[in-house]
Design goal:
It is a single chain. By secondary structure, the chain is an alpha/beta fold. The chain folds into two domains: 144 residues, Rossmann fold; 66 residues, DNA polymerase, domain 1. It is 43% helix and 11% strand. The chain has ten helices and six strands, in the order E-H-H-H-H-H-E-H-H-E-H-E-H-E-E-H. It has a six-stranded parallel β-sheet with strand order 3-2-1-4-5-6, with helices on both faces. Strand 4, helix 9 and strand 5 form a beta-alpha-beta unit. Helix 1 packs across helix 4. The radius of gyration is 17 Å and the shape is globular. The two termini are 13 Å apart. The model has no long low-confidence stretch (mean pLDDT 92).
Length: 222
């Protein structure tokens, strides 16, 4: 019985991943290297500290260990300076409808808290009973820790949580946490999302979530 719905941020609620790519590309250009957009999208869900060594190897450049934190912070500042926040159609309407039906909701993102706050204003943040960012966990996706932390905060057992994701590491995180996962095809082709329990083709189809949940649970509308 589904009692809570947990949403990823970038690629599910906010259409911001392109700007994360631009920020990483800008920083690596300064080092004399390049990274691919597909790589950024595939590694979504990891923290910047986990992603940076991967991108350094991909770009074939080096950075002194003591410079990693400063590099990441400069990337984050640049991202916040260029991002133009757009939301996927019907994202918040879907969250509101799910809440109206009596389900708990949470936002679970690998982004820093400052980047999350840049993406979602306080009024919209209030639609979520819990928010877990990359600053709040010791292990990022694909570890189950982010989604398990959200489940604890909303007071719902993991088996009664449904996750909405758009990337393979997020799907793995949800499955590792023992949760049902719905994937949306927004940033990666469907072949990267097949480990999800359900894949829905377009973000506007998030409106299908409330009736889909009702069909899969005896909870229904309270």
């Amino acid at each position: 019985m589904i009692q809570a719905v947990l949403f990823d941020l970038d690629g599910v609620i906010a259409d911001t991943l392109h700007y994360h790519y631009l920020a990483w590309a800008h920083m690596f250009e300064k080092l004399g290297g390049t990274i691919s957009k597909e790589s950024v999208f595939l590694h979504e869900g990891r923290t910047s500290r986990e992603i940076l060594p991967i991108f350094l190897r991909e770009a074939g450049v080096t950075l002194e260990n003591g410079a990693h934190e400063e590099f990441i912070e400069r990337k984050r500042r640049y991202y916040r300076s260029i991002v133009r926040i757009r939301y996927f159609p019907y994202a918040f309407e879907t969250v509101e409808e799910i809440r109206r039906r009596g389900f708990r909701t949470a936002l679970v993102t690998a982004s820093s808290r400052r980047n999350m706050e840049k993406s979602i204003d306080p009024d919209r943040r209030s639609l979520f009973d819990a928010i877990v960012t990359g600053d709040d966990v010791s292990q990022a996706k694909p570890s189950p820790e982010p989604y398990l932390a959200a489940a604890r905060q909303v007071g719902v057992p993991p088996a009664n949580c449904l996750v909405v994701e758009n990337a393979p590491l997020g799907i793995a995180s949800a499955r590792n946490a023992g949760m049902t996962c719905v994937a949306v095809v927004t940033t990666l082709p469907i072949e990267h999302l097949r480990e999800a329990d359900i894949v829905i083709g377009e973000i506007r189809d998030l409106l299908e979530l409330p009736p889909l949940i009702a069909r899969r649970t005896s909870h229904g509308t309270p």
